[in-house]
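ingest -> validate -> predict -> emit
validate: passed (alphabet ok, no gaps, 619 aa)
predict: started
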Amino acid sequence: MENRKIWTYDIEIFPNFFLLVALNFDTGEWRIFVLETLNDLRIWLKTEVKVLVGFNSHDYDDNILRYIISKKYVSGEDITHSNLFDFSAKLTSDDKSFRKFVWKELIKKIPFPFQSIDLYKLHHFDRSFTGLKHVAVMLKWPLIKDLPAKWDEPIDDLEECLFYCVNDVGITNALLTASQKELRSRKLVQDTYGLNVISKSRTAVGDTLLTKMYADYTRQNPQWFRKQQTIRKGVPLRNVISDKVKFTTESMQIFLEEMKEFISWPHKDGGFHEDIRIGDTSYTIKEGGIHDKNKDVIWESNQLYTIMDYDFGSYYPNLMITLGIYPAHLNDFLPLFKRIVDQRLKAKAEGDKSTSDILKIVINSIYGKLQEENSWLLDRQAQLGVCMNGQLYILMIIEALEAKGIKVIYANTDGWSVYCPNERIEECNKICQEFADYFNIPLEYERYDRFVISNVNAYLWIKDNYTKLKGDMFTTNPDLSKGFNYPVVSIALLEYFINGTDPLETLHNHDNVLDFAIAKKSAKKFRIYYRSIVNGEYTEEEQQKTNRYIVTNRATGKLVKVDSETGKEYTFPNANRCMILNDCQDINPKSYPINYNFYAARVWDDINKINRNFQTVLL
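emit:
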């Protein structure tokens, strides 16, 4: 047992070739297995593997292993390239009967002597269909390489296949390193509650843990209560709006009465949607939450005015508790929910961050499941009760502040911000706290030096050396499932707004050329070409489907894609002068003809758009 380790792995199967490559996560040792060494593979799995980590491995690679180690094929003599390929092809098909066979005859009957982890499911990439090559781009992996041959044709260059597979395992290993925090939380859930959630997404962890908690609390069988739902067609908003909601101005009173007359329907255009104006700011009220319409503006504290930001703590959970909101078919839900919230607050107060974080996942998953079609928590009236009252509470506060001449400059789902005269900060805090006490919801507030708003979903708070940000515009480490578009622009943008650094200075001092890159994956119907002049002659080289490139300051080459069906040609974004960096072993930007002015222009576009509405004391 002491010799068993953590390995990352990948399998490639062609009609004439089987390959498994594995990398020891701790020592860096490599293992390679082919058809002729399947018995060695079985021994390795039993004696040296403690944890096997893959990417989309639960649905594919793991089942290939089960097929190989199943009792029917113990000698390896009956396994050929042909039947391995046939099994692989069926495994990736839409054959439902075959999937049932795999579940019944392999997954249920052949337990692994090791733990299996699928990073694809852990990061919920199955929701966004994020592939390993995209992850490689996001991790700034040096080599982006597509499969070197068609999967359903015999492969001639076996060394090229090995090179490809080794690279994929390296990417998986890097993703495993980046996933340690997520895996530690899953391990804690597993050790504390006895639940195998090691490869589950955060959403799935929350649902699995909540199911166990509800089953233990009510002593009911999950197979029964997870089939329950409260199905509603039209929901009159009058039935969900709290009696605590009251407005003082005539316009808001009219708005409230009109809202109460509205019936919300579950179809696409059946939800409530209204734009209102309080003071100088317009707000959009929808069933997804409140948002102001301010955009492209900077607010700055000074000797006369201060930016104050207010947030309700754990707003939606507290709304459920204080308003007694729960799915109508789960009578015992609210006492359990309150217990979970109390347990989290206790863990947080005692410095037990791990337990606090786990319970936070459970708590935060609940509101969304109130409106999720396939969830056992489904009850649209409960969801609307949380969301609509949450918005109305914040509107009550905004109305009161504006009536006192205190300017509200921002509002979102659980908070609001004001630009307050310095001598009135105490008064503003008191007004907000009185409402918080009236709603019985904890209030948090903080002063900031600067508030940069692009839109309600992209903003930057600055205070001393502390920043709080949201949105792709200001994010320097993009989400692994999102697009990759020269993050160096966001780096320069942040540096400008925080420290006033000229964007060109930031760009010239940056130390990783991959942050200048643009990455695009093309559909199968396109053929990709890189056209350039080499030694005075025109060349056209066909490229892979996934490409990473930088914008250059000279005519290095042009990247295009051609529709195989229509022959129509398209140039990739900003790729008239570009250099492909699919294989980038040297990350020093000085080694490349980067068009710094292009990237600086992108930064200045955002800066100028926001700076034109710079606000200080001139109100």
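The mean pLDDT is 92.
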